[in-house]
């Protein structure tokens, strides 16, 4: 029997820009990045406090302070990074317009060289060059993509920053849930609370890891294990650093 061909996927699905669960796919990177970082950094605070045997109120205060400050810092960094990319693109685009106006023959030759390397020859090459250079916008877009290898991103700085911050707060608050609903006047940590925090954090990281795999179409188990491993390493380090510091400073 001839080997079975793998099932073909609808091209529209492969390039889908819809939503994965409740998140626009184009912003899934920001959600995953913010969520993983939020969960891991907050859980590291909890683990460090557990290792140092601090009180519940200290865990909550440190955790919330880290959650808000670090989340805001990450979103601001994301905002300026995205904005810088757009500003850089616009700057080079304006330069290309100037070169078309002032160095027209040189730019025409660059278009000719680009498409000659792609295999166009003779009359067909000249036709392609004529069509492209007859429209300034098309001409500039072609130079941006083919010469500078730059493409305008569709993401806006405000949305990327907002998604990052919201994800950081939502997922990053999970390790604190078991402590937020306990009596913060308690002078010592209950080991059960840390166990609940571990379980909740593992669930949150698993969901984020699965979401990442759903969009990238990679093995979901691998995606989940990657995020859990990263969180586990961070918690392990924080716990024993807290434990060592508590012994040194006490």
TrEMBL record:
Protein name: VIT1/CCC1 transporter family protein
Keyword annotations from UniProtKB, A to Z: Membrane, Transmembrane, Transmembrane helix
Subcellular location: Endomembrane system
Membrane topology annotation: Multi-pass membrane protein
Parts of the chain that traverse the membrane: 160-181, 193-211, 223-242
Iron-sulfur recorded as keyword: no
Entry-linked InterPro entries: Ccc1_fam
The keyword Secreted belongs to this UniProt entry's keyword annotation: no
């Amino acid at each position: 029997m001839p080997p079975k061909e793998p099932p073909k996927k609808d091209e529209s699905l492969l390039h889908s820009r819809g939503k994965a669960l409740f998140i626009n796919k184009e912003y899934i990177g920001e959600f995953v990045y913010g969520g993983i970082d939020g969960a891991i950094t907050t859980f590291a605070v909890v683990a460090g406090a557990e290792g140092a045997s601090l009180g519940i109120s200290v865990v909550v205060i440190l955790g919330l302070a880290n959650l808000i400050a670090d989340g805001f810092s990450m979103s601001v960094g994301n905002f300026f990074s995205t904005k810088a990319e757009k500003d850089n693109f616009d700057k080079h685009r304006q330069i290309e317009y100037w070169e078309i106006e002032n160095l027209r023959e040189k730019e025409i030759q660059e278009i000719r060289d680009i498409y000659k390397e792609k295999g166009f020859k003779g009359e067909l090459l000249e036709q392609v060059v004529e069509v492209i250079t007859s429209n300034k916008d098309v001409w500039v877009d072609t130079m941006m993509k083919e010469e500078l290898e730059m493409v305008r991103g569709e993401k806006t700085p405000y949305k990327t920053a907002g998604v990052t911050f919201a994800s950081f707060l939502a997922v990053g608050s999970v390790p604190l849930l078991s402590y937020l609903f306990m009596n913060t006047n308690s002078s010592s940590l209950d080991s059960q609370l840390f166990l609940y925090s571990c379980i909740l954090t593992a669930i949150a990281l698993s969901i984020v890891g699965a979401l990442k795999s759903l969009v990238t179409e990679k093995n979901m188990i691998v995606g989940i294990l990657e995020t859990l491993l990263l969180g586990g390493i961070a918690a392990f380090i924080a716990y024993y650093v807290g434990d060592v510091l508590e012994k040194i400073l006490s």
